[in-house]
Specification:
Shape: globular
Structural class: alpha+beta
Distance between the termini: 45 Å
Radius of gyration: 20 Å
Helix content: 25-40%
Largest sheet: 11 strands, antiparallel
Protein backbone atom coordinates (compact mmCIF):
# COMPACT_ATOMS: atom_id res chain seq x y z
CA UNK A 1 0.00 0.00 0.00
CA UNK A 2 1.41 3.37 -0.97
CA UNK A 3 0.28 6.76 0.18
CA UNK A 4 0.28 10.05 -1.68
CA UNK A 5 -1.10 12.62 0.72
CA UNK A 6 -0.66 16.27 1.52
CA UNK A 7 -2.08 18.87 3.83
CA UNK A 8 -3.63 22.20 3.15
CA UNK A 9 -3.45 24.80 5.91
CA UNK A 10 -5.93 27.60 6.16
CA UNK A 11 -7.65 30.03 8.49
CA UNK A 12 -11.43 29.80 8.70
CA UNK A 13 -13.99 31.74 10.70
CA UNK A 14 -17.77 31.80 10.71
CA UNK A 15 -20.62 33.71 12.32
CA UNK A 16 -24.37 33.74 12.65
CA UNK A 17 -26.47 35.49 9.96
CA UNK A 18 -25.83 39.22 9.63
CA UNK A 19 -27.96 41.39 7.38
CA UNK A 20 -25.53 43.96 6.01
CA UNK A 21 -25.43 46.22 2.97
CA UNK A 22 -22.89 45.74 0.17
CA UNK A 23 -21.24 49.00 1.25
CA UNK A 24 -20.79 47.77 4.84
CA UNK A 25 -19.54 44.37 3.68
CA UNK A 26 -17.14 45.99 1.23
CA UNK A 27 -15.70 48.28 3.89
CA UNK A 28 -15.01 45.30 6.16
CA UNK A 29 -13.55 43.29 3.31
CA UNK A 30 -11.11 46.07 2.42
CA UNK A 31 -10.25 46.41 6.12
CA UNK A 32 -9.50 42.67 6.19
CA UNK A 33 -7.18 42.85 3.21
CA UNK A 34 -5.44 45.95 4.60
CA UNK A 35 -4.98 44.26 7.98
CA UNK A 36 -3.43 41.23 6.30
CA UNK A 37 -1.12 43.47 4.26
CA UNK A 38 0.15 44.90 7.55
CA UNK A 39 0.91 41.39 8.85
CA UNK A 40 3.43 40.34 6.21
CA UNK A 41 4.71 41.52 2.79
CA UNK A 42 3.42 38.27 1.25
CA UNK A 43 -0.06 39.82 1.48
CA UNK A 44 0.75 42.83 -0.70
CA UNK A 45 -0.74 43.55 -4.12
CA UNK A 46 -4.28 42.27 -3.61
CA UNK A 47 -6.36 41.59 -6.71
CA UNK A 48 -10.13 41.43 -6.36
CA UNK A 49 -12.67 39.48 -8.41
CA UNK A 50 -15.05 41.82 -10.23
CA UNK A 51 -18.13 39.82 -11.21
CA UNK A 52 -19.71 40.75 -14.56
CA UNK A 53 -22.82 42.90 -14.53
CA UNK A 54 -25.07 42.21 -16.31
CA UNK A 55 -24.42 38.47 -16.16
CA UNK A 56 -25.41 35.85 -18.70
CA UNK A 57 -27.11 33.48 -16.28
CA UNK A 58 -24.60 30.76 -17.16
CA UNK A 59 -22.24 30.26 -14.17
CA UNK A 60 -19.47 28.89 -16.38
CA UNK A 61 -19.62 31.81 -18.81
CA UNK A 62 -19.82 34.36 -16.02
CA UNK A 63 -16.91 32.67 -14.25
CA UNK A 64 -14.73 33.11 -17.31
CA UNK A 65 -15.80 36.75 -17.55
CA UNK A 66 -14.82 37.73 -14.01
CA UNK A 67 -12.30 40.57 -14.14
CA UNK A 68 -9.31 40.68 -11.77
CA UNK A 69 -8.67 44.25 -10.67
CA UNK A 70 -6.05 45.66 -8.26
CA UNK A 71 -7.25 46.78 -4.86
CA UNK A 72 -6.55 50.44 -5.66
CA UNK A 73 -9.08 50.28 -8.51
CA UNK A 74 -11.54 48.34 -6.38
CA UNK A 75 -11.65 50.76 -3.44
CA UNK A 76 -13.95 53.41 -4.94
CA UNK A 77 -16.22 50.68 -6.41
CA UNK A 78 -16.25 48.21 -3.55
CA UNK A 79 -19.99 48.49 -2.80
CA UNK A 80 -20.78 47.88 -6.48
CA UNK A 81 -18.34 44.94 -6.65
CA UNK A 82 -19.96 43.27 -3.65
CA UNK A 83 -23.47 43.98 -4.93
CA UNK A 84 -22.70 42.42 -8.30
CA UNK A 85 -21.50 39.26 -6.57
CA UNK A 86 -24.83 38.67 -4.84
CA UNK A 87 -26.11 35.13 -4.44
CA UNK A 88 -28.71 34.18 -7.03
CA UNK A 89 -31.77 31.96 -6.91
CA UNK A 90 -32.67 29.08 -9.22
CA UNK A 91 -33.96 31.57 -11.79
CA UNK A 92 -30.71 33.57 -11.74
CA UNK A 93 -32.39 36.46 -9.96
CA UNK A 94 -30.45 38.38 -7.28
CA UNK A 95 -31.21 37.07 -3.79
CA UNK A 96 -29.71 39.50 -1.24
CA UNK A 97 -31.31 37.62 1.64
CA UNK A 98 -28.91 34.75 0.84
CA UNK A 99 -25.93 37.09 1.08
CA UNK A 100 -22.96 38.13 -1.03
CA UNK A 101 -19.57 36.77 -2.10
CA UNK A 102 -16.15 38.37 -2.38
CA UNK A 103 -12.83 36.94 -3.53
CA UNK A 104 -9.30 38.33 -3.52
CA UNK A 105 -5.90 36.89 -4.34
CA UNK A 106 -2.32 38.12 -4.23
CA UNK A 107 -1.66 36.97 -7.78
CA UNK A 108 -3.97 36.32 -10.72
CA UNK A 109 -2.18 33.09 -11.65
CA UNK A 110 -2.15 30.63 -8.77
CA UNK A 111 0.84 29.06 -7.12
CA UNK A 112 2.06 27.60 -3.80
CA UNK A 113 2.71 31.05 -2.28
CA UNK A 114 -0.45 32.77 -3.48
CA UNK A 115 -2.92 33.80 -0.78
CA UNK A 116 -6.66 33.67 -1.43
CA UNK A 117 -9.37 35.24 0.74
CA UNK A 118 -12.98 34.15 0.17
CA UNK A 119 -15.92 35.80 1.94
CA UNK A 120 -19.60 34.84 2.17
CA UNK A 121 -21.83 37.04 4.31
CA UNK A 122 -24.58 39.62 4.49
CA UNK A 123 -27.75 37.54 4.40
CA UNK A 124 -29.91 35.18 6.38
CA UNK A 125 -27.33 32.41 6.03
CA UNK A 126 -24.28 31.96 8.23
CA UNK A 127 -21.31 34.01 7.06
CA UNK A 128 -17.69 32.93 6.82
CA UNK A 129 -14.26 33.98 5.65
CA UNK A 130 -11.39 31.71 4.61
CA UNK A 131 -7.73 32.40 3.87
CA UNK A 132 -5.72 29.72 2.14
CA UNK A 133 -2.29 29.63 0.56
CA UNK A 134 -1.65 27.91 -2.72
CA UNK A 135 -3.60 25.38 -4.69
CA UNK A 136 -3.39 21.63 -5.08
CA UNK A 137 -1.27 19.79 -4.31
CA UNK A 138 0.00 21.91 -1.41
CA UNK A 139 1.18 25.35 -0.28
CA UNK A 140 4.83 26.26 0.10
CA UNK A 141 5.43 24.87 3.61
CA UNK A 142 8.16 27.44 4.31
CA UNK A 143 5.42 30.02 4.79
CA UNK A 144 3.22 27.80 6.95
CA UNK A 145 4.52 29.11 10.27
CA UNK A 146 2.91 29.60 13.66
CA UNK A 147 3.63 33.36 13.89
CA UNK A 148 2.13 34.02 10.46
CA UNK A 149 -1.03 31.94 10.90
CA UNK A 150 -1.62 33.27 14.39
CA UNK A 151 -1.28 36.86 13.15
CA UNK A 152 -3.64 36.13 10.24
CA UNK A 153 -6.26 34.63 12.54
CA UNK A 154 -6.13 37.60 14.91
CA UNK A 155 -6.20 40.14 12.05
CA UNK A 156 -9.28 38.58 10.48
CA UNK A 157 -11.06 38.23 13.79
CA UNK A 158 -10.42 41.87 14.71
CA UNK A 159 -12.53 42.87 11.70
CA UNK A 160 -15.32 40.28 11.77
CA UNK A 161 -15.65 39.65 15.54
CA UNK A 162 -16.73 36.07 15.01
CA UNK A 163 -17.61 33.66 17.85
CA UNK A 164 -14.83 31.37 16.67
CA UNK A 165 -11.89 31.22 14.32
CA UNK A 166 -9.48 28.42 13.55
CA UNK A 167 -6.14 27.90 11.81
CA UNK A 168 -6.33 24.29 10.73
CA UNK A 169 -4.83 21.54 8.65
CA UNK A 170 -6.85 19.46 6.22
CA UNK A 171 -5.36 16.10 5.31
CA UNK A 172 -6.15 15.07 1.76
CA UNK A 173 -4.78 12.91 -1.00
CA UNK A 174 -4.98 9.24 -1.94
CA UNK A 175 -3.87 5.79 -0.89
CA UNK A 176 -3.12 3.08 -3.46
CA UNK A 177 -4.35 -0.30 -2.22
CA UNK A 178 -3.15 -3.22 -4.40
CA UNK A 179 -4.85 -6.61 -4.77
CA UNK A 180 -8.44 -5.40 -4.49
CA UNK A 181 -11.19 -7.26 -6.35
CA UNK A 182 -12.82 -4.38 -8.21
CA UNK A 183 -15.45 -6.60 -9.87
CA UNK A 184 -15.75 -10.40 -9.72
CA UNK A 185 -12.61 -11.87 -11.28
CA UNK A 186 -10.83 -8.51 -11.71
CA UNK A 187 -7.99 -7.78 -9.26
CA UNK A 188 -6.50 -4.32 -9.45
CA UNK A 189 -5.14 -1.42 -7.41
CA UNK A 190 -7.81 0.69 -5.80
CA UNK A 191 -7.28 4.41 -5.20
CA UNK A 192 -8.88 5.50 -1.93
CA UNK A 193 -9.19 9.12 -0.87
CA UNK A 194 -7.73 10.16 2.48
CA UNK A 195 -9.37 12.95 4.45
CA UNK A 196 -9.04 11.88 8.09
CA UNK A 197 -6.08 12.01 10.43
CA UNK A 198 -4.35 8.71 9.59
CA UNK A 199 -2.96 8.16 13.09
CA UNK A 200 -6.35 8.33 14.81
CA UNK A 201 -9.36 7.02 12.96
CA UNK A 202 -11.59 8.16 15.82
CA UNK A 203 -10.53 11.79 15.48
CA UNK A 204 -13.78 13.79 15.50
CA UNK A 205 -14.88 15.16 12.14
CA UNK A 206 -15.92 18.79 12.19
CA UNK A 207 -15.66 22.10 10.39
CA UNK A 208 -12.48 22.66 12.42
CA UNK A 209 -10.77 19.63 10.79
CA UNK A 210 -7.37 19.31 12.54
CA UNK A 211 -7.20 22.51 14.60
CA UNK A 212 -3.79 24.10 15.08
CA UNK A 213 -4.66 27.53 16.54
CA UNK A 214 -8.22 28.17 17.63
CA UNK A 215 -10.13 31.14 19.02
CA UNK A 216 -13.33 31.28 21.05
CA UNK A 217 -15.03 34.55 21.93
CA UNK A 218 -15.38 35.45 25.61
CA UNK A 219 -18.96 34.20 25.59
CA UNK A 220 -18.10 30.87 23.98
CA UNK A 221 -14.96 30.39 26.10
CA UNK A 222 -16.63 30.94 29.48
CA UNK A 223 -15.77 28.06 31.81
CA UNK A 224 -13.45 26.27 29.37
CA UNK A 225 -10.79 24.23 31.21
CA UNK A 226 -7.83 22.83 29.29
CA UNK A 227 -4.81 20.70 30.24
CA UNK A 228 -1.56 22.57 30.74
CA UNK A 229 0.01 21.25 27.52
CA UNK A 230 -2.47 23.27 25.44
CA UNK A 231 -1.01 26.74 25.01
CA UNK A 232 -3.57 29.39 25.90
CA UNK A 233 -3.74 33.16 26.03
CA UNK A 234 -6.43 35.79 26.31
CA UNK A 235 -7.08 38.12 23.40
CA UNK A 236 -7.77 41.84 23.86
CA UNK A 237 -11.51 41.24 23.46
CA UNK A 238 -11.53 38.70 26.29
CA UNK A 239 -11.56 35.69 23.99
CA UNK A 240 -9.46 32.57 24.38
CA UNK A 241 -6.70 31.52 21.98
CA UNK A 242 -5.66 27.85 22.07
CA UNK A 243 -2.64 26.36 20.29
CA UNK A 244 -1.65 22.74 19.80
CA UNK A 245 1.96 23.61 18.98
CA UNK A 246 4.14 26.59 18.04
CA UNK A 247 5.70 24.48 15.28
CA UNK A 248 3.84 23.74 12.07
CA UNK A 249 1.05 21.31 12.88
CA UNK A 250 2.00 17.88 11.56
CA UNK A 251 -0.88 15.36 11.22
CA UNK A 252 1.71 12.57 11.23
CA UNK A 253 3.01 13.62 14.65
CA UNK A 254 1.14 11.68 17.39
CA UNK A 255 1.66 14.42 19.97
CA UNK A 256 0.38 17.12 17.63
CA UNK A 257 -2.66 14.98 16.85
CA UNK A 258 -3.35 14.37 20.54
CA UNK A 259 -3.32 18.08 21.34
CA UNK A 260 -5.32 18.95 18.23
CA UNK A 261 -7.95 16.47 19.33
CA UNK A 262 -8.33 18.24 22.69
CA UNK A 263 -8.84 21.55 20.88
CA UNK A 264 -11.24 19.98 18.38
CA UNK A 265 -13.36 18.48 21.14
CA UNK A 266 -13.41 21.85 22.94
CA UNK A 267 -14.49 23.68 19.79
CA UNK A 268 -17.18 21.11 19.02
CA UNK A 269 -18.52 21.28 22.59
CA UNK A 270 -18.84 25.05 22.37
CA UNK A 271 -19.68 25.79 18.74
CA UNK A 272 -20.96 22.46 17.41
CA UNK A 273 -19.34 20.23 14.80
CA UNK A 274 -20.62 22.57 12.08
CA UNK A 275 -19.56 25.70 13.98
CA UNK A 276 -23.13 27.01 14.08
CA UNK A 277 -24.20 26.41 17.65
CA UNK A 278 -25.37 29.58 19.38
CA UNK A 279 -24.61 30.16 23.04
Amino acid sequence: MTTETYCTYYVHSAWNPRLETPAAIGAKYLATLDALSAVDPIFKHWILADYPNPNTGDPDVDGWNINAIPIASARPRIAEIIENYVRRDDFNEPCPSDGYHAMATTREIGGPRVANVILNTGGERHGDVTLQFGEDPAPDLTIVTYPLYKAVLLAINAVWHAPWACAQAYRSGTISVPGVEIVPGLIATKIVSVERVPLDLTFPYSVFHIPWIAYLSAEYAAGVALPCDILTERTPDGGLLMSATTARLDPDNPEHVRRARIIAETMIARAGSDGRRTI
